[in-house]
């Protein structure tokens, strides 16, 4: 009889990477493996320990290699049959070298080869030798594989893979390839499927969601897709989100589709990267700071309650204090709800990585701290405007934290504009993930709101 096996998939990257993990999990479940918790996996219960890696910054790479040696210890002590399978962007980047750097890895499968995982695992189990298979390009959308989704009420849906841009700091295009768009019929079938299975929220994923359709010569397809989501509201689809649009390709039709489609949420993640036009040019971002700010104006004119978040890189090669001041100026003016701020990290094979005018670490650190301080101040100011207001929250967990002896629970969820909110309910309140509730905010902290159920 076949031994009942367990798997665990660890995600180290972005949302696209996390969604790929759901497909990896789906593939492993089709092989007959059952999920176990991270804690159990680290005790040796997992027969397949898959790690879905990221390579966007150097520290992401370092994390992986340390982690594999820790897993090998667990394998040696508790489960000699454990297969350590490494996929994702770092696997795509390092290929065979991954086995040289981490000899304890059993399977290396990259970004394009999720469908090849069963074959590689079986071969590794049989031969006890490391199996590496990295495909050079996408042959099958991971969306065609079955998925073991982490959440029933909130589902990711990939609309495109890869990226046609050439941002000079970025390694992603070399690991994810050129943009490939899924057919709209396939995307809509998946929306129908997840909604029929109880999804109340979906998030469309792509490196550049707003160029969706360009492969078929249909530039307006993303706005059409958003508008189409109104049809599913009656079936329970309450909230639609997406990440990330690119400012250079951002058009009014997307803003209007957001404004006029009731279940598309007023939140937008749009990476600025830098406020300096010189740096933006050298990054090959194809827009100037003024255009970025004009997009924000257009968004706020049409969607007054929109919360905009962003990504910013500090310390791009050649960035002067004046360039950095420009970033501070744009951040001040843009009023982002929050920002992911990154210190520039040299990536092999990129144009910016080959430059000689890299900025010393101490200067990058010092600028990074100044930017963080400014954005934290703006974030808190905005959060404070919610005190006393009532917000609609989608419950994301019913495993509340017990607060005190008074039989109260703290649950959490997100507002329409994607702010994390904690709220207190009495024990026994029947709420399930995906339910919408009204919460009166009585306290605002930088990264969450706290309130009570109305
Ligand atoms: N496709 C997405 C972003 C993917 S990477 C987009 O363009 O919107 C996520 C973020 O990582 C980027 O927005 C950028 O801010 C950051 N990033 C990418 N390469 C980086 C590097 N070499 N150093 C530091 N941050 C980087
Ligand atoms: Fe990287 Fe630029 Fe493509 Fe985003 S748009 S994935 S930052 S190359
Ligand atoms: Fe995502 Fe990291 Fe790859 S950010 S696309 S997992 S390099």
Explain this structure to me?
This protein is an alpha/beta fold and 454 residues long. It has 14 helices and 20 strands. It has a six-stranded parallel sheet, with helices on both faces. The longest helix is centred in the C-terminal third of the chain and has 24 residues, at 361-384. It is globular, with a radius of gyration of 23 Å. It binds S-adenosyl-L-homocysteine (SAH), iron/sulfur cluster and FE3-S4 cluster. The site of iron/sulfur cluster has 9 residues, from helix 7.
Task: Jot down its keywords.
454 residues, alpha/beta, Rossmann fold, pyruvate-formate lyase- activating enzyme, OB fold (Dihydrolipoamide Acetyltransferase, E2P), 3 domains, six-stranded parallel β-sheet, five-stranded mixed beta barrel, 14 helices, 35% helix, globular, binds S-adenosyl-L-homocysteine, binds iron/sulfur cluster, binds FE3-S4 cluster
Compact summary:
The protein contains 14 helices and 20 strands. By secondary structure, the protein is an alpha/beta fold.
């Amino acid at each position: 009889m076949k031994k009942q096996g367990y798997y665990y998939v660890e995600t180290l990257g972005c949302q696209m990477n996390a969604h790929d993990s759901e497909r990896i999990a789906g593939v492993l479940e089709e092989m007959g493996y059952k999920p176990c918790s991270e804690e159990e996996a680290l005790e040796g219960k997992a027969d397949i320990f898959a790690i879905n890696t990221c390579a966007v910054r150097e520290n992401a790479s370092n994390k992986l290699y340390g982690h594999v040696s820790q897993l090998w210890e667990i394998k040696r002590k508790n489960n000699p049959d454990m297969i350590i399978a490494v996929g994702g962007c770092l696997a795509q980047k390092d290929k065979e070298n991954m086995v040289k750097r981490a000899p304890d890895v059993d399977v290396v499968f990259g970004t394009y080869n999720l469908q090849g995982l069963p074959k590689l695992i079986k071969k590794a189990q049989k031969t006890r030798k490391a199996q590496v298979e990295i495909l050079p390009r996408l042959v099958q959308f991971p969306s065609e594989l079955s998925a073991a989704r982490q959440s029933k009420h909130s589902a990711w849906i990939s609309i495109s893979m890869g990226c046609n841009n050439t941002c000079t700091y970025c390694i992603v295009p070399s690991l994810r390839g050129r943009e490939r768009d899924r057919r709209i019929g396939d995307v809509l079938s998946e929306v129908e499927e997840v909604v029929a299975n109880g999804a109340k929220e979906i998030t469309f994923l792509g490196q550049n969601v707003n160029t969706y359709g360009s492969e078929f010569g249909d530039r307006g397809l993303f706005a059409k897709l958003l508008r189409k989501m109104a049809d599913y509201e009656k079936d329970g689809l309450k909230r639609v989100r997406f990440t990330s649009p690119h400012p250079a390709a951002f058009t009014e039709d997307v803003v209007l589709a957001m404004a006029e489609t009731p279940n598309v949420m007023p939140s937008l993640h749009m990476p600025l990267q830098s406020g300096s036009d010189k740096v933006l040019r050298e990054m090959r971002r194809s827009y100037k700071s003024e255009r970025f700010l004009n997009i924000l104006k257009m968004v706020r004119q049409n969607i007054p309650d929109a919360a905009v978040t962003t990504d910013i890189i500090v310390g791009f090669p050649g960035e002067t204090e004046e360039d950095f001041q420009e970033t501070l100026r744009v951040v001040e003016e843009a009023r982002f709800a929050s920002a992911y701020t990154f210190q520039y990290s040299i990536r092999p094979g990129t144009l910016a990585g080959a430059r000689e005018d890299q900025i010393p670490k101490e200067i990058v650190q010092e600028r990074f701290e100044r930017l963080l301080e400014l954005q934290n101040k703006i974030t808190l100011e905005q959060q404070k405007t919610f005190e006393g207001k009532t917000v609609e929250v989608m419950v994301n967990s019913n495993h509340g934290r017990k607060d005190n002896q008074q039989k109260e629970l703290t649950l959490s969820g997100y507002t329409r504009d994607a702010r994390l909110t904690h709220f207190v309910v009495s024990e026994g309140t029947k709420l399930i993930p995906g339910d919408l509730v009204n919460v009166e905010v009585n306290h605002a902290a930088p990264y969450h709101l706290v309130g009570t159920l109305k």
